[in-house]
Amino acid sequence: MKGDMEKSRFVQNSTTGHGGDVRHMASELGVRVEELLDFSANINPLGPPSWLRSLIARELDRVTHYPDPLALKLRTRAATHFVVPVESVLAANGTTELLYLLPSVLQPKRVIVPCPSYIDYVRVAELAEVDVKTIELLPEQGFRLDCDSLADQVEVGDLVIIGSPNNPTATLVDYEDLRSLARSVPGADFLVDEAF
Length: 196
Hints:
Blueprint: H1 2-13, H2 22-29, H3 50-59, H4 72-82, H5 95-106, E1 110-115, H6 119-127, E2 131-136, H7 147-151, E3 158-163, H8 175-184, E4 189-193
Parallel strand pairs: 1-2, 1-3, 3-4
Helix pairs in contact: 5-6
């Protein structure tokens, strides 16, 4: 039991950073990859569905060319669906790529992150040399974000990054509470990451 607790503490305090790095974690813990249950990334632990293999095989001839670097077809479909201009839609290789671009685009004076949360929210700000203010989400409150309390701490020029559902707590933030929060500080930017 003591060894299991030590391994559990080690996993929580690991310096591996971004989730999904099961090979590194297994090596550090001295276990096989197959012995780990990885809840750190939104990857299906059952693997791809059976129909996907045949779909990939049918479309394999299309991978002889680079994909459209502007992702125009995808952006056009998204713009049509959300009734916004195509120029308002940005396609990227996942949320993390967009996160790393955000500070240079928005140039916030400070980034506010409710924590615990996805590690890259804070890392992105630190790499961009932007001040970070973390708001502690408390286990005794079910790691719920109190939008009213947060509103009192947000200032003009801030970028507030909120995961909903949050990673790793899996808590959701009420949509209307988020809208009220954003309206309460019109000079701040709010990013709601719904990737998980």
